[in-house]
Amino acid sequence: MTSRGLLLLALAVLTGCPGDVPPEECFLLGAEEPPTLIIAEGETASVRVHAASPQVCDTPEDAHTPESVTVEVHGPDNLPVPATVELTTGTWFATVRFTPTSTGRHHVIVAFAPVGSLRQFDVHVAQDERSRTPVATLDARPTCLFVDRTRGGTWLCDHLALREPGTQPQLVGRETQPATAVAGDVVWALTDTEVRRYVDPGTGPLVLTGTAPFPPGSYDTDRTPHSRLATEDEYLVADATTLHRFIFREGEGVLAFSNTPWNSLAMPQLTFGADNTRAILLRGADTVWLVSSAQDRVTFTPRTQACPFQVDAQGFYRPSTTRACQVLAGDPVGHGEGVVWTRDTVQTSTGFFPVLHRYEVSAAHGLQEAGALSLDSSIASFVQELRPGPSHPLLGSSSGVGPIATPRWNQERTALVLALLPDPGRANHITRISDHFTWTVSQSGAPGVRVHPWTSSP
User: Fold this and answer.
1) Ramachandran area for residue 57 (φ above 0: left; ψ -120 to 50: alpha; else beta)
2) Is residue 16 over pLDDT 50?
3) What is the pLDDT of residue 247?
4) Are 236 and 244 a contacting pair, CB within 8 Å?
5) SS3 at position 115
6) How far is C-alpha 233 from the geometric centre of its chain's CA atoms?
7) Distance between CA 53 and CA 59 in Å, rounded?
8) How confident is the model at residue 56 (pLDDT cuts 50, 70, 90)?
9) Looking at residue 303, what DSSP letter applies?
10) Is the CB of residue 210 less than 8 Å from the CB of residue 186?
């Protein structure tokens, strides 16, 4: 029997439908389960809940409407949360209200009597960061896939540098698929033919301090970078098959240590993200971890792995001889400084549910899972571009209404919680988030990229 048939049969038992009448013909299912909600901490949740509405054959619809209703709300610590519920007389609807005082998942159970209807759903309570004041409005170009700022105050929007918003921008790298990176007052950039290193002197334009040729790509004909890492004296770029290293030395300028293959092609490589990314670079002390996805040749299933690279005596990054590759659950969906996010689907007794995993680089143990967040099918995880730079997951209601949230590590609770992002409206704006900033791009009306400060942990 199908799951629908089992549910209808259970309703028949609860309400006493005549045994000679097939349940599928005698009963009608009620509305869908209430959608999972995302609200702010301290905000009152008000949810209209529909009872399952089985009807006995040849019986008026209003003869079996609920006569009473009760509600239980449990917080993330499984302790009860005060709540009220009001039944709309003569209908199948009740309104649940409660005001959460802590972040995290709240489970709601609504019981209608005497119809025997039980409804359960979740409300995710998030930190409210929507009122953060913008620190800049960048109008150098219609959109910015990458936003960062030097210690000296110069803004970077993709391949453009701006001392102050509204001033004439300085071109520092390639316009298509820019690969800009900021480390303190140093800006690394990539053109079609070379790597450039700039320094912010504190006033005026960035000062070019060195260049080095960028070798032809071994996979992408346009030599598109998939990921990069930077310190003030080192710039790493991963394309689809090769890890390129550039270093800066006083008196010598920028030196190239290139052409370290990372993709052995032992397994067919897969892409992830909205821009078909093949690699994500993470740093852990003297080790660089390269995260990629490949199809297992035996099982044909995707497998995400992080492989360690270390600098050899000649100055090239080589696969580590002391550490092994690690397998990660799910597909990469975001990354930041020393962090990679993956999205997995797990099966439970009630169905399949997406789970976000947060992996953190440890100098001693490599990549370790530091938090997981189970999502409901009504919460959408937006697929984003991962090549431009750090990009953390964005979540919202799959209905397309309501606020946009991001998972955030709460050190005090040692758990992932949601935080609501500054967002003027999902209909006409695109929101992006990195380690230090979140910004919205207008798709209509006045141009400009509104930038807000951000921290990956409160």
Assistant:
1) beta
2) no
3) 95
4) yes
5) coil
6) 30
7) 13
8) very low
9) E
10) no
